[in-house]
Design a protein that fits this description.
By secondary structure, the protein is mainly beta. Helices cover 9% and strands 58% of the residues. The chain is built from 8 helices and 35 strands. The protein has a 22-stranded antiparallel beta barrel. The longest helix is centred in the first third of the chain and has 15 residues.
């Protein structure tokens, strides 16, 4: 008898513009469903839902009150052209240019400043992305149109992802549903952006392909002696496939490749920035890079209700700084497993991961090896959900013949969620997490003879995070809010030390972050919808030579606002605004220098859908606000004038 797998892969729908009322109704239904996990799991089709969650990324395992979710419709309504633009406009994440490089931007959550990207775990299609050095992860290899869901999880999941998952987790899931899209866009500075994705689902097979080509001539001059400006190109593509030979087994594999080149100008002085941010700095950087990631694995659904997921894979990358004759070569391997059982009264899961990453440059080889084991559980009692987890992780860091260090870490988390009713829930949690110094931090040059040695001033950074919050629906309003305290110890930074008399990687001693976040959504009518978000964080140094100073690179206040209006069924008009208050220069631990300019961007967008086509246009930074990152008094300008873009998208 032929096996029937169609229940595992329902056909996707052809994308049309829903009314905003329908979108909010869907959001509201999902929110109400997540308020009481125990009630959700009392369904007789729990095992079937588990299969759907794996194959179609319909996540239901993690508690919704601890995360912020953006689905396909909210991404489409934003009219953003890449993931950094979308996150910057629509979330409370702080997205900053990384010394002028638009492909590896710093992503900060809850006030970690220039080290934000080192304290936020980034997970793409279930695979943890990480660098062993100080460079941020590049997300430009993922076309925005290929993304099905983005989740921002705060202070939960630290046991599952281990080292570096301190402020939270950024989870990105690419599209697993039937259909596709072709998007062509042209914007200011001669920017051409073309991207596509397509996915086909059959009875036992699910395969998807995506690709992107982007090219731009940038906004800053590279030299005072010529008219050449900064510029870049980005080429990437990927393929993901699922095959389920039986109702109990899912096989999966994916391959992603990205190549980009970029020229970006060095910083300028404060006076030059005030005069004209497009002026050239003293020189520029020319970088070429390619990345390859791959993985394969399987998911088994046993008759006893146990779901086991196993993955193996790796990565290769080469980054060549052409005008500095410096070449970095990296490669990595990983394998992980997760086995879980979920009943009407509890969830239990056990998992682990082995990783090995290397980087070579100028004859020096850096290596990081890690072994992670974790155990998590949830207990459902009436309207209450209790969760707990523990983890142990062993990390070995090596740098050629200079040093070899070993760390043994023990983390844990506790949480409680209580549903007051079907619309309102309360939650509280605690997590202990860690950040091991990366290979750049650990490499130290003796101030007397300048020989490389192991850094004697750094240790594992330990963080204790406490948070409480609520989430609820009140007629036309949806609100979520939380308050948190993060106590840190041995947090690393780079700067001048009064004790040693040199600039080096060293410890801030004790740190403290106190803050809160709020998101307020309102559906005024079937055609009018708004979102207001606000984040506050007071990040201070509590010991060391900088005691009671503010941690630099942190905006105390972040505010976003958006308004969508549909005067016609297929016409969407949007207004998006983001504000970040002034912050201290990235290296100003004494808090004595001028603060950086506040961040502001006002964006307008419009789109019209007819049949399977959509035409759209937008203007960003309408007010020409001058934005910049400041490091040691040097200004790295970005988003300092308005830009225009427009395009057409075809979906099927």
């Amino acid at each position: 008898m032929k096996k029937n797998h169609k229940n595992l892969c329902p056909k996707g729908f052809r994308k049309k513009y829903f009314s905003l009322a329908a979108i909010l109704a869907l959001h509201t239904a999902l929110l109400a469903q997540s308020q009481n996990t125990a009630l959700l799991e009392k369904s007789d089709s729990a095992n079937k839902n588990l299969k759907l969650s794996v194959i179609l990324a319909e996540e239901f395992v993690e508690n919704g009150d601890f995360k912020e979710v953006f689905d396909t419709q909210s991404i489409a309504l934003s009219n953003a052209q890449n993931i950094y633009d979308f996150l910057n406009t629509n979330s409370l994440l702080t997205i900053r240019s990384n010394y002028g490089n638009p492909y590896t931007q710093n992503i900060d959550l809850r006030g970690f400043g220039q080290n934000g990207h080192k304290n936020l775990a980034i997970v793409v299609d279930g695979i943890l992305f990480e660098n062993i050095d100080s460079a941020p992860i590049s997300l430009n290899s993922i076309p925005l149109d290929s993304i099905q869901k983005i989740e921002i999880i705060r202070a939960k999941g630290t046991t599952k992802y281990g080292n570096g998952a301190i402020s939270g987790i950024l989870k990105i899931t690419t599209n697993r549903k039937n259909g596709g899209a072709l998007n062509l866009n042209y914007a200011s500075y001669g920017t051409l952006n073309s991207q596509f994705f397509t996915r086909s689902i059959r009875d036992t097979f699910n395969i998807g392909v995506y690709g992107q080509y982007q090219h731009t001539q940038g906004e800053r001059y590279l030299s005072n002696l010529g008219d050449e400006k900064s510029g870049s190109y980005n080429k990437n593509g990927g393929i993901t496939a699922f095959f389920y030979p039986s109702n109990d087994l899912l096989l999966k594999t994916n391959l992603n490749y990205a190549k980009y080149g970029i020229k970006y100008a060095n910083p300028i002085s404060k006076d030059a920035f005030a005069l004209n941010p497009s002026l050239a700095g003293n020189g520029h950087t020319h970088q070429k890079r390619w990345d390859l990631t791959y993985s394969t694995g399987f998911t088994n659904f046993s008759d006893l209700g146990v779901v086991t997921d196993v993955n193996i894979g790796g990565s290769r990358n080469v980054s060549n700084y052409v005008n500095y004759n410096s070449k970095y070569e990296g490669k990595g391997l990983f394998s992980n497993f997760n086995s879980q059982f979920k009943s009407t009264s509890y969830l239990a899961e056990i998992g682990g991961e082995i990783r090995q990453n290397t980087r070579q440059n100028l004859g020096q080889k850096a290596e990081v090896e890690s072994l992670l084991l974790y155990l998590n559980g949830e207990k459902y009692i009436n309207d209450s959900t209790f969760n707990a987890g523990v983890s142990t992780q062993r990390i070995i860091t090596k740098q050629s013949d200079i040093y070899s260090k070993q760390y043994n870490l023990f983390g844990g988390e506790l949480g409680y969620n209580y549903a007051l009713n079907s619309q309102i829930s309360l939650f509280a949690s605690y997590a202990r997490s860690f950040n091991v110094p990366n290979v750049d931090w650990l490499l130290y040059y003796d101030p007397i003879n300048f020989t490389p040695v192991a850094n004697p001033y750094l240790d594992v950074a330990t963080f204790d995070t406490y948070q409480i919050g609520t989430k609820g629906i009140f007629k036309i309003h949806t609100i979520s809010a939380n308050a948190f305290v993060i106590q840190g110890k041995d947090e690393a930074f780079f700067g001048f030390s009064k004790l040693t008399g040199v600039s080096a990687n060293q410890s801030l001693g004790k740190t403290q972050r106190i803050g809160g976040e709020m998101k307020f959504t309102t559906q005024y009518s079937a055609s009018l919808y708004s979102t207001l978000s606000y984040a506050y964080v007071n990040a201070k140094i509590k010991s060391s030579e900088y005691k009671d100073k503010k941690i630099p690179g942190v905006s105390k206040h972040t505010f976003t606002a958006s308004l969508n209006y549909l005067p016609l069924t297929n016409l969407n008009l949007g207004v998006h605004y983001k504000y970040g208050s002034k912050m201290y220069d990235y290296n100003d631990f004494n808090n004595t220098q001028d603060k950086t300019p506040n961040y502001q961007s006002l964006n307008l967008s419009a789109s019209y859908a007819f049949k399977d086509f959509e035409v759209y246009a937008s203007v960003n930074n309408l007010t020409n606000h001058k934005n910049a990152v400041v490091v040691s008094g040097a200004y790295y300008p970005y988003e300092f004038e308005h830009t225009f873009s427009g395009g057409v998208k075809y979906t099927w």
